[in-house]
Amino acid sequence: MRQLADIDLGREPAPDETSICKFRHLLERHELGRRIFEAMHDHFEACAVQIATGTIVDVTIVGAPSSTKNKAGARDPGMHQTR
User: Fold this and answer.
1) Is residue 9 in some structural domain?
2) How far is it, in rounded angstroms, from Cα 53 to Cα 55?
3) 7 and 14 in contact (C-beta within 8 Å)?
4) Is the residue at 51 inside a domain?
5) Among 15, 16, 63, 83, which residue has the fewest nearby CB atoms (within 10 Å)?
6) Would you place residue 80 in the very low, low, confident or very high pLDDT band (cuts 50, 70, 90)?
7) Integer Cα distance of 82 and 3 in angstroms
């Protein structure tokens, strides 16, 4: 997102909600959102890039001891440690 908006957070602050809303309303007023998405679609299609829907997930890793406190007294095989 930072590369797309060309924002260097080391030199300048991230835009606040008001700035983003003003920009969005400016795009809506001039009906540019649809035109931008059409241009992006055409570009991706020309480059043979396929776009699919997805979900953005924000993950926080917290240090915690391994636990065997369950009925089987064993570690969950689906859980893995992270370094």
Assistant:
1) yes
2) 7
3) yes
4) no
5) 83
6) low
7) 28
Q: What domain count does the chain have?
A: 1
* Euclidean distance between the first and the last CA atom of the chain, given in angstroms as a whole number: 26
Is residue 10, in this structure, part of any structural domain at all? yes
| Report field, pTM of the whole predicted structure over 0.85 | no
At 55, the amino acid letter reads: T
Q: Locate 52 and state its tokens.
A: 């699919």
C-alpha angle 64-68-69 in degrees, rounded to nearest 5: 95
Q: Which domain holds residue 19?
A: 2-46
Structure tokens that stand for 34 in this block: 């649809």
Amino acid identity for residue 17 in this structure: E
Residue, of 53 and 41, whose pLDDT is higher: 41
Alpha-carbon 79 to chain mean position = 24
